[in-house]
Amino acid sequence: MRRFERTIRIGGREVGPGLPVYVIAEIGSNHDGSLERAKELVEASAEAGADAVKFQSFTAEGLLNPRKLDGGRWVDNPAWEAMRSLELPEAWHGELKEYCDGLGVEFLSTPFDAERARLLKSLDTAAYKIASGDVTNEPLLRLVGSFARPVVVSTGAASLGEAERALAVLGEAGCREAALLHCVSLYPPRFEEINLRAMVSMGAALGVPVGLSDHTPGATTAVAAAALGASIIEKHITPDRSLEGPDHGYAMEPGEFAAMVKALRDLEKAMGDGVKGPSEREAAERVGARRSIYAAAPIAEGEVVEARKLKIVRHGYGLAPSELERVVGRRARRAIAKDELVTWEDL
Questions:
Q1: What CATH number labels 280-346?
Q2: For a tag on the chain, would you pick the N or C end, based on fewer CB atoms within 10 A?
Q3: Is 248 helix (H, G, I), strand (E, B) or coil?
Q4: Which fold has domain 8-271?
Q5: Do the Cβ atoms of 256 and 238 come closer than 8 Å?
Q6: What is the pLDDT of residue 119?
Q7: Where are the beta strands (DSSP E) in 98-238?
Q8: Can you tell me the distance from the alpha carbon of 155 to that of 133, in angstroms, rounded to the nearest whole number?
Q9: How many CB atoms neighbour CB 321 within 10 A?
Q10: What pLDDT, on the 0 to 100 scale, is given for residue 79?
């Protein structure tokens, strides 16, 4: 398999291990066929701190067959008309990208067919997202891989071998920057179905940046994934979870999305550099929290110091408790009053 870069660049952001998490607000089909709502969600995502918004670029004709098997018989596909109503019209793509550019948030979209992939290429989008259902769609992978842009692949319901094969196809097409998102293709999944450690093992095995496309309620799974090394977090956003539609019910409302982004940024600060030692502010607390050796009773000049005449208490201004055995048995050079700090100069 062709080697990929350890980091990818989406627009002006470098994305990869040890770098700030790249947060994608998945608008998907939650525009409900309204350009105005799509723009409102872009604005809400930008205000919430998302690095990018993502739409879904498909036509019903290019995505699914109008007939399906039902009990061994071919019947009309009930999803056909629903999908037609959720299409992102071709004319909206450029307008939404321009709107995103004006708000400083990256415009991304998932192409579900070659026609829509070429449309996104004509708009010079910064990266391409491949849906979980297309992880084995080698013609689409090969096309998008030839565009000389980063490709982010969701891996819902995929095996490690299928994820590896997707990377191989992208690499054969000339792609050098790719990332994989662990995903569970349930809407929503239960927490016990998430298997976040699979994200970690996938990254270790395949050597590309990894992340999470998350459909669980709340921010718990997303923040945990970031703590485990996720470079990308993708989460659906909606103006209102009570709205009708396939993706509203498990999406985050704008305030919740903003709280998740804040939690992710707080986590990044909390992760630190991995070197164990007191922080600059914490170092000052060592004196107050630690103990030193004090006289528990008066000690006369020339007296041999006994353990019963010593105590180990706060504050830690002087000799550490670890010096107790070296102090006991020495003679006092001067009289030491009760509750007085014992120092080497006194012995």
A1: 3.90.1210.10
A2: N
A3: coil
A4: TIM Barrel (3.20.20)
A5: no
A6: 98
A7: 106-111, 128-130, 151-154, 178-183, 210-214, 232-236
A8: 8
A9: 12
A10: 84
Q: How far apart are CA 289 and CA 314, in angstroms?
A: 7
CA distance 121 to 149: 9
pLDDT for the residue 1: 67
Q: Which residues of the chain have pLDDT under 70?
A: 1-2
Domain assignments of the chain as residue spans, ordered by start: 8-271, 280-346
C-alpha angle 225/229/230, rounded to 5°? 55
**pLDDT of 236:** 98
- Model confidence pTM above 0.85: yes
- Cβ-based neighbours of 191, under 8 Å, separated by 6 or more: 216, 220, 221
pLDDT score at 233: 99
The amino acid at residue 249 is G
pLDDT at 2: 67
pLDDT attached to residue 82: 84
Give the helix/strand (H/E) hosting 278. Answer: none
Cα-based angle 94, 97, 99 (whole degrees, multiple of 5): 110
| Residues sharing a CB contact under 8 Å with residue 199, sequence separation 6 or more, in sequence order | 182, 210, 211, 212, 225, 228, 229, 230
pLDDT tens sequence across 210-229:
999 999 999 999 999 999 99
Residues 6+ apart with CB under 8 A from 263: 219, 223
Q: What is the pLDDT of residue 80?
A: 84
What is the tens place of the pLDDT at every residue in 294-332? 999 999 999 999 999 999 999 999 999 999 999 999 999
How many CA atoms are closer than 13 Å to the CA of 64, on its beta-carbon side?
16
Smallest CA-to-CA distance from 317 within 297, 347, 289 is with 289
Quote the tokens at residue 31: 């525009």
Closest residue by Cα to residue 25 from 227, 260, 308? 260
Please count the CA atoms within 13 angstroms of the CA of 270 that sit on its side-chain side.
10
